[in-house]
Amino acid sequence: MKRRLTSFFCLLCVCVLLAGCQSRESVASVQVTLPPVAMKREAPVEDAQSAYEQTVMMYLPSTDGTRLLAVPQRIMAPAGQHMARILCETLLAYPAAENTAALGAGITLSLASGNAVEVSGQVVTVNLNASARNLSSEQFFTVGQALANTICQFGDVQYVNVLIDGVQPGLNKPGVLPAGCFQMNMREDLATLWSRASAPMSQNRRAYTASLYYPAPSGKGILCEARTFAFVSTDIVSLTQTLLDALSTEAVTLPRMPRCPDFRSLLLDTPSVGEIDGRRVLTLRFRDAMNAALIDAGITRSVMMASLVYTFTAFLPGIDGLEVYIDDEQITSLTPSGVYRRAGESMTFRDGVMTRADFAGFLLSECALYFLDENGRLARTYRPVPCEDAYNAREMYRQMLDGPQAFDSKTGLAPVLPRGLAAEDLLGVSYDGNVLLVNFSEKLLTVVQEMEGTAVEKMIYGLVDTLCCLPGVKRAAIFVGGRQPETLGGTIYLPGDFMPSPNAEE
């Protein structure tokens, strides 16, 4: 019996050692005493489009219409993208069942064309196609609440805007009651939520949550922040002036943002609303001092116009676009500079009306990157990048190659990737479940030869920690020239998968 117990404990120790072969710990000098990990995955030779399975909840109206019910659904989430779009598409197309009704009460709903689902900050904006105009105000509210409960279930999104064909419809048919941002609410029934949302404005102030689109640092575009404000009335002039005052204050959750000018003091006339070629347009007239104020703030005209257009069309009911004057000059065209998208490209606005679609390329989202702090530890910083790039592994690698930037949320950091690596040295990216596979050229073996101490280990974990911030990614496997060498730079064991470092600074 003693001999059997001894054999069992010996076997157990061997199993523990074998499991350690796939751990993410590095050693100063690698001495392999066990067979290498058998790697069954193939190195990607190009970027593969794939998806990962995820169980989600679809929030649908009960058959009696009194509440939203959670229905579990297995979906294939596209890798390298935020889940918001696939959640919207699945929810809008979900059929009626025994206990739940389809959204829309018999009206077929779908997303509008183009950038129908935008993610910035903790806000998702969903743009429905024109068929949603046939919804009653209460039906529209139910759709908005169902979208919010479904999209916000993972916690990375807190607020949802719902537009119809690029326009905020409001919560009543005259189009004067703002909807504001929808938030997740599973505690109260739909009747209670609708009663509160649709209640007429009283003499007391009423609070709404609005999406503010601030100019991003270094003129790169605009970033979204949702905040709750007290509005005096639903009069369009009052709503506009409150939003202008809000934009004139500093952002709360977005660091290092340039301070917008004091718009109220720069207004030449009271904001007004009129109709131009069948479109309902908000007109803003600023003094000539607006030009100098923007220069002093370090904000370009194009980015400032994107900020105003996105903020007002997301919140003000029934507004198709804006026309803006500075003194006697109407802004009818712009040539952006410094932005990620459309830099140097002339933008011309029909009848001088600027719409949300005109500035779609200006919307940014923040991605997480890992660099080294003054103590040589990995530290996370956030960088504004175009929304479509924020969840792309190759783009994250390119951002790491650029090194720390002055407009990052945390400054004073040092690069983690060595000199000599280029964008083309990442040969391919693919997914195997929740494991991201990245394949580098043989050049990686060359550049690490010049790295000393723990630099190779920090490079690997800086890369791994960054990639594991992407949706659906839990681990990363690194290949060099289509294979996994036993060691990299003689200091870190490469075969197997890497998990994020627990020692990285948040």
Structure description:
By secondary structure, this protein is of the alpha+beta class. Among the domains are: 25-43 and 364-493, no CATH class; 53-200, no CATH class. 24% of the residues lie in helices and 25% in strands. It is built from 11 helices and 20 strands. The strands form 8 sheets. Strands 8-9-10-11 form a 4-stranded mixed beta sheet, with helices on one face. Helix 3 links the parallel strand 4 (123-128) and strand 5. Helix 2 packs across helix 3 (137-151). It is globular. The relative contact order is 0.12. The model is unreliable at 1-36 (pLDDT under 50).
Give a short synopsis of this structure.
The chain has 506 residues and is an alpha+beta fold. The chain is built from eleven helices and 20 strands.
Q: Which properties best describe this structure?
A:
single chain, 506 residues, alpha+beta, 4-stranded mixed beta sheet, 3-stranded mixed beta sheet, 20 strands, disordered N terminus
Layout of secondary structure:
Elements: H1 2-20, E1 51-61, E2 68-78, H2 84-93, E3 117-120, E4 123-128, H3 137-151, E5 159-164, H4 190-198, E6 206-215, E7 222-231, H5 236-248, H6 263-266, E8 272-276, E9 279-286, H7 289-297, H8 301-315, E10 321-326, E11 329-330, E12 333-334, E13 347-348, E14 364-372, E15 378-386, H9 393-402, E16 426-432, E17 435-440, H10 443-447, H11 455-467, E18 475-480, E19 487-488, E20 492-493
Parallel strand pairs: 4-5, 9-10, 17-18
Antiparallel strand pairs: 1-2, 3-4, 6-7, 8-9, 10-11, 12-13, 14-15, 16-17, 19-20
